[in-house]
């Protein structure tokens, strides 16, 4: 799914979060938020990374 699987499934240390990573993570977060049901959305709105969102759902 748009080369985002690794971004979503692996936790990346803050030191390794470069501009390219941030762009992919933002895309993954958008993908998750726009495809998840409203009830589940309430549980992930405070998350800061797509990986964090993925582990909560």
From TrEMBL:
- The lineage's top-level taxon is Eukaryota
Name this protein carries in UniProt: Uncharacterized protein
> Which source organism does the UniProt entry give?
Solenopsis invicta
